[in-house]
Amino acid sequence: MNMRKRYAVKLGYAPTRRNVFSREDSLKYKKRIKKQLEDWGIDLVDLEGINKEGLLYGPEDVPKAVERFRKEGVEAVFAPHCNFGTEDAVAKLAKAMGKPFLLWGPRDEAPLADGTRLRDTQCGLFATSKVLRRFGAPFTYITNSRVDDPIFERGVKNFMAAAAVVREFRTMRIGQISTRPDAFWTVKCNEGELLERFGIEVVSWSLVDLVASTTAKIKKKDKKLVATIQDIKKRINVKSISAPELAKMAAMKLAMQEFVDAEGLSGLAVQCWTAMQESLGVMPCFTHSELTGEGVPVACETDIHGAVSAVMLQAARLGETPTFFADLTIRHPENENSELLWHCGPFPSKLAAEDVDPAIGRHYILDPPYPGVCDWRIKGGDVTIARFDGDFGEYRLLMGHAMSCAGPFNRGTYLWVEVGNWPLWEEKIIRGPYIHHVANIHGEVAPVLYEACRYIPGLTPDPVEPTEAEIQAWLRNQD
User: Fold this and answer.
1) In whole angstroms, what separates CA 231 from the centre of its chain?
2) Which of 328, 302, 82 lies closest to 184 in space, CA to CA?
3) 3-148 has which CATH code?
4) Degrees, nearest 5: CA angle 315-319-322
5) N or C, which terminus of the chain has less Cβ within 10 Å?
6) How distant, in Å, are the alpha carbons of 200, 300, 382, 466 from that of 472?
């Protein structure tokens, strides 16, 4: 699957004007803004044909615009004010669509020699924002700026990524394989509340079904299983495990993928120990790694909230790179602001650092040492750490940026990261509602997650580093 295409958002383009200002300038900016959006590769649906100008400027235009956008499957709406704009029509469109909504207008030029003004765009933006509030229509705002200003590009692209997160969140289906490990009270969640509050569906699949599907594939030795085994051998060092053990891991991967495809799942939360290895004789860690690397985020220890976190992060990066699901484990022995992101083996092998030999090994903590864990440090760079979680009916989204750093060798899959103020992070997590699990992705997307929360009622953004004020400054291009 083309991940970039999967996360592409179709944008409804609804430029607006008001009659008392320059019609000619409005038409000029309508075309100029549209061309810029198309140059950025944005798939848009315009309003050409709903009236003579393809501009939203009367109440009678709203039903026609809504019909056009709904018919074309629009998933977000942009209403650039090409002059002052028509605030009631814009607000009615936003309310009727119920989609992420972008408000912006090009900065006005100097008054003409005779003192008259052509557009008064900024004034119109102030008016429209008030009416949007009265209609209860959430919106994203980009500072009044020129079409070729960096802030406009930053704002549009951040908005489009946020819209992708919102779409994934509103249609999320998480597959739960088996029950949670008995000792893991931390991953208890309210499945009914997730459905009632956010529309997130949890689809269960028993361990019995997984074992049966996996075993059947091994017995058949079908072409897909053989091809999967050969592909793994090309990419991964499998010297520490036997051929039958590798076959079980490959068959498990295919079984889980079929479950994902059959149910249209966004991600998985799996009871990865101890019942699974006792039933199949292998750990599922490598299988988690494979699926996550192919765009199906998997959370360990049946962590439903962890899977939700990972799905949101993957959407925030528009599928350009996979997530990796980690424990917050230990502080760096020397670096006061460094922490180890680690887990037994679910980090995708495609993220492995260039100087390591990705290998499937045997568990070095659990006894007996079942095969299926992985050993590789992943590549460094900027990282976003996030956690969707809640208790007592209140939900928050932890978010922050980190940078990889040097640290001691570890077994399993891991990455050492450094933040600006680890004690602040630690306190934030301790005070909750968070646990030791976090979803992570390469790249800095806290502003995307922050903006997405604007369109998810009941979910409060909880930035650490950068702070909320720093994210807002970044969105104003004042970082």
Assistant:
1) 28
2) 302
3) 3.40.50.1070
4) 100
5) N
6) 28, 33, 20, 10
The model's pTM is 0.96
170-475 has which CATH code?
3.40.275.10
Q: Do domains 3-148 and 170-475 have the same CATH topology?
A: no
Q: Let me know: does 63 contact 71? Beta carbons within 8 Å.
A: no
Strands 437-442 and 382-391: antiparallel
* Burial of 207 (C-beta count, 10 Å sphere; 0-12/13-18/19+): middle
Q: Where are the domains of the chain?
A: 3-148, 170-475
- What is the rounded CA–CA span in Å between residue 261 and residue 254? 10
Distance CA 232, CA 282 (A): 16
Task: Report yes or no: 119 and 107 within 8 Å, Cβ to Cβ.
Answer: no
With CA atoms as reference, report the closest residue to 332 among 385, 405, 437, 399.
405
Place of tokens 């490959």: 250
- C-alpha span between 207 and 173 (Å, rounded): 19
pLDDT in tens, 63-95: 999 999 999 999 999 999 999 999 999 999 999
In the numeric block, which tokens belong to residue 23? 């019609």
Say how far apart CA 25 and CA 76 lie, in whole Å: 25
Q: What is the dihedral of CA 80, 86, 89, 91, to 10 degrees?
A: 70
pLDDT, tens only, 267-304: 999 998 888 999 999 999 999 999 999 999 999 999 99
pLDDT of 3 strictly over 60: yes
